[in-house]
Amino acid sequence: MASSYRQHWTLDPEVTFLNHGSYGACPEVIQQRQQALRQEMEREPVRFMGHRHSLIDRAREAAADFVGARTSELAFVQNATTGVNAALRSQRWKAGDQVLVTDHEYNACRNTLDYVAKRWGAEVVVVRIPYPLRSEEEVMTAMLDAVTSRTVFCLVDHLTSPTALRLPLERLVPALQEKGIRVLVDGAHSPGQIPLSLHKLGADYYTGNFHKWACTPKGVAIFVAREDRHEDLHPAVISHGLNADTTHRSRFHHEFDWTGTFDPTAWGVVPETLTFMESLMEGGWPAIMKRNHDLALEARQDLCQQFGVTAPAPDSMIGTMAAVPVPQDLAEDFWARDRNLYAELGNTWGIQIPVIPWISGEQKHLILRFSVHLHNNREDYRKLAEAITSMRS
Length: 393
What we know:
Helix content is 42%, strand content 15%. The protein is of the alpha/beta class and 393 residues long. The protein has two domains: 4-18 and 282-392, Aspartate Aminotransferase, domain 1; 31-274, Aspartate Aminotransferase, domain 2 (3-Layer(aba) Sandwich), CATH 3.40.640. The strands form three sheets. A seven-stranded mixed beta sheet has the order 2-8-7-6-5-3-4, sandwiched between helices. A three-stranded antiparallel beta sheet has the order 9-12-11. It has a two-stranded parallel sheet with strand order 1-10. Helix 6 (107-120) links the parallel strand 3 and strand 4.
């Protein structure tokens, strides 16, 4: 039986959707609200675009409240990768500088770091985070041991994309900053998955998607930058905001709020999305996050028991997305014969879930990364266990 909440989404009823973490899923009522706003825009495009600031400012206030950030430090971007590009391409490094990144970083953002570092002649130092791992201390030790007198910058995930690990940023960010290192947090999966207080966290830069766990339409992400980092900061696309009048509006907002013609309606429905989602469960967003977190832990425990494998990380490092190893015999079949388990799960079982190859040192792993949101229930993960068991026989 499907989750009682699934009625609010337009997800294919024939698909067991365990991959909310890739692109999210927007509730039907929000799709309708965006369409209404889009129709309003198309009725009088010039007037609508001329009043876009009020639309964006309203959305910014709701987003800032949701993630615990100052409105003066928050701008919208279309995705977290765009935010990473803005922060990295605004840096001024010199030859010999070192920049840190973990081996769990999302490929698109890693590509950006490599590209920018090469232009400046800086060295990218890839920190290997053990996987599986036993504790947060392994992350802290690996990161801080990699710091040298030449380290000036760090790009780090809040929740890793391939391995679904919640990194201990509350400890790591200040530890790096005490050494004079600027920190950019790739929080692509964080808003709506875990509670956030970005002003308290104090990272130099933070970016995160709202179209994933916060369930907005596609193309909504936040970019938060401390005010003391605004002077040399620019979006990846330079437009009218560079020389705009800053009497009533900061250059930061002028530049990021308008980088050329685009459809701002996805940003415009952020307040309605957050309010609607909050209304689905008594206790609002805290209750939603707790429910999803608890189900993620239960599902992970059940799957590990069914597969005869060990959980690759402690409970404290899990949000509402988790990873479990594929049973060894199936993993060996994958590596030996390039067996397409992702396609088998999708085509034969109707299960949408990423199957991720992961090489850590000399060890090869194959990971099932599953997501939990309100449209999921325990039956979804029982079906996954049944499918994997059948595929082994």
